[in-house]
Amino acid sequence: MKLHFGEAWGIFVKTTPYVVLRIVVYGLLGVGAGLFLGFFLLLSKVFGGGGGLLFLLGVVALVGILKLVQRYALYLIKAGHIAVITELIHKGKLPEGVGQVEYGKQVVTGLFKEVSVLFAVDQLVSGILKGFNRAAVNVTELIPIPGLDALAKIATTILNFAVTYVDESILSYNLSRPGEGIWESAKRGVILYAQNWKPILTAAFWIAVVNVAGLAALVLVALVPFGLLAMMTASGTLKFFWLVMAITIAYGLKLSIVNPFCLVAMIKTYNEAVRGQEPNPQWEERLQTVSGKFRELRDKARAAAAGGLRPAPGPGAAA
Question: What is the mean pLDDT of residues 17-26?
Fold first, then answer.
């Protein structure tokens, strides 16, 4: 197993325009989330005993808002970044005369047409991967650490978190095959994962650990200035507000810096693992047995091939 961190860093640096865009967008979201929670924290202070419920409602509302923003706006940014990463991995450079962000947008919208279709493909693939991992993966075999039995639940949680990098790698695989129907390329990508699940998932696990460690480091860094502000503040409510701001801003920076670096490493690992391979019919049969979602993906691919679902044209197709 190789994590390709050195190569990932080189590609990550080449996508600086997208990284800067993500820092701006996620940074603003982090500040906005902190202020949003600060408002509900203020309400909880004003209303005393019943204010805790108001703050809890604020947290729930924020989660719902962020999910909507992620689905219809942030996901398009992430997919565009994946398109640029994919092009750099496969060809080493982008086409001349077009900016990175514009190129990523053109590729994604050209292939998927609607963000809702992109999101649907990703969610279906994610469900298949989680189902396959539950049926086939032994955590204690995958991560050979003595005494892991006692930590199996923690390891499983990290593993489930790691799946997001794998399904994004399959999205990269889709984007690398613009002449193929999106459902068919997604099906191929899933089968190739199943054929090589152990090295891919092992790498994904350790990449997820790096991601969590990166978040912890960013939180510690953010706590320095906000901790100083808290020390200069007498109000307990305001002290808690500075803590909330530190965490939300650190999390925003994690999404914009640590996540894309880990994503590049995972896409590179996936590509190296499946290089030169074709889907094995035996693995397709196994996936059909263990995953109803894979059967759904197979049916969509067949319907698209038969004309029941219109395959999206590649990014180079005429409008």
Answer: 89
Tell me the angle at which helices 236-253 and 197-231 cross, rounded to the nearest 10 degrees: 150
Predicted local distance difference test score (pLDDT) of residue 67:
77
Residues 7 and 260: beta-carbon distance below 8 Å: no
- 175-188: pLDDT as tens digits: 888 778 888 899 99
Q: Quickly state the pLDDT bin for 12 (edges 50, 70, 90).
A: very high
Residue 72 φ then ψ, to 5° = -105, -5
Tens digits of per-residue pLDDT, 261-310?
999 999 999 998 998 899 999 999 988 888 889 999 999 888 887 774 44
User: How far is the C-alpha of 291 from the C-alpha of 287, rounded, in Å?
Assistant: 6
Amino acid at 88: L
Query: Which candidate, 260, 291, 249, 300, places its Cα nearest to that of 36?
Result: 249
Q: How many CB atoms lie within 10 A of CB 45?
A: 17
Contact 305, 180 (CB under 8 A): no
What does the block give as tokens for 192?
Answer: 């190739």
Question: What's the token pair of residue 70?
Answer: 């992620």
The token pair at 223 is: 């706590």
Where do we find the tokens 């099906």?
187
What is the per-residue burial (b if ≥16 Cβ within 10 Å, else e) of 191-204? bbbbbbbeebbbbb
